[in-house]
């Protein structure tokens, strides 16, 4: 059975409110959590973007959940040395509970730091070099580097007994296959079943069957279908943009302009929209059947408390009692 977790969206909620929500999710039966790590929201209507690493310390102290955080060690917003130190500190305090999900980033979060915005090929090279640096630092090595990321006799002094798992963020089979060379696991998002299977298969072809796959599931649940559709369009219509486009836009205003004419039909392949909890349960069962170890549910509306309560009472028990789901470790 896949582990069902809760996605904490910093873009939509103030950090204090999000802390309450992740606690409610744990009490409702969600067994894991995922945190975004943004400098800015995707659109002006979302309106928030707290600093994830500060929040993670509080959230991991307030709950007993395992956490994943998506971040970008390409040397613009975060130097790999800083990511390694932050991850090591959390892993030392909360052993075995942290997965760091590494990707090549978006201009929205990186470009404001004034160091330019490299093309995709360079970002990939920066990511892979950064991954090697983080791995070496977490192994206790002293690192000097003259590549994209400059280091001089750098090392970490507060190391966990167990290094945090380094996952790869991937949206395409090509990225997933390449990440199989280094990643301890894959993190991706819900997409049409054939595309999702292709991404997972590409990763496992390169990495082997033993490494876990986590899927962030964007969904919109509400008491009525009209409200679920309205929430999806108002809060998460930017999800309809291709990843290659979304990576290049550098402000919430640009995202709003790029999606101003989009409606619910444009979100059909990227947000699961229904007022029926059992329908959501069916969709999640289908994803779990692909051999996914963890599903992180992101209800894209602001109605988080109703979502957590309803899914805790109706959807999680449905999945946990379903003998058709593949058993998998957390």
What does this protein structure show overall?
- This is LLM class F420-dependent oxidoreductase.
- The chain has about 325 residues and is of the alpha/beta class.
- It has helices at about 15-30, 50-60, 80-95, 105-110, 120-140, 175-180, 195-205, 225-235, 245, 250-260, 275-290, 305-320, and strands at about 5-10, 35, 65-70, 100, 145, 150-155, 165-170, 185-190, 215-220, 270-275, 295-300.
- Strands 1-2-3-4-7-8-9-11 form an eight-stranded parallel barrel, surrounded by nine helices.
- Strand 2 (about 35), helix 2 (about 50-60) and strand 3 (about 65-70) form a beta-alpha-beta unit.
- It is globular.
What's the gist of this structure?
By secondary structure, the chain is of the alpha/beta class. 41% of the residues lie in helices and 16% in strands.
Radius of gyration: 19 Å
Strand arrangement across the biggest beta sheet: 1-2-3-4-7-8-9-11
Question: What average pLDDT do the residues reach?
Answer: 95
Domain count, please report it.
Answer: 2
Name of the CATH superfamily of the largest domain: Luciferase-like domain
Which regions are unreliable across 5 or more consecutive residues at pLDDT < 50?
Answer: 323-330
CATH architecture classification name of the largest domain: Alpha-Beta Barrel
Principal-axes geometry comes out as globular
Overall strand count: 11
What composes the largest sheet? Answer: 8 strands, parallel, barrel
CATH fold category name of the largest domain: TIM Barrel
Portion in helices: 40-55%
DSSP helical segment count: 12
H/E element sequence = EHEHEHEHHEEEHEHEHHHEHEH
The computed structural class is alpha/beta
How far is the N terminus from the C terminus? 9 Å
What is the class of the largest domain in the CATH system? Answer: Alpha Beta
The portion of residues forming beta strands comes to: 15-25%
Pfam families: Bac_luciferase
GO molecular function, one term: oxidoreductase activity, acting on paired donors, with incorporation or reduction of molecular oxygen
Domain Luciferase-like: 8-293
Keywords: Oxidoreductase
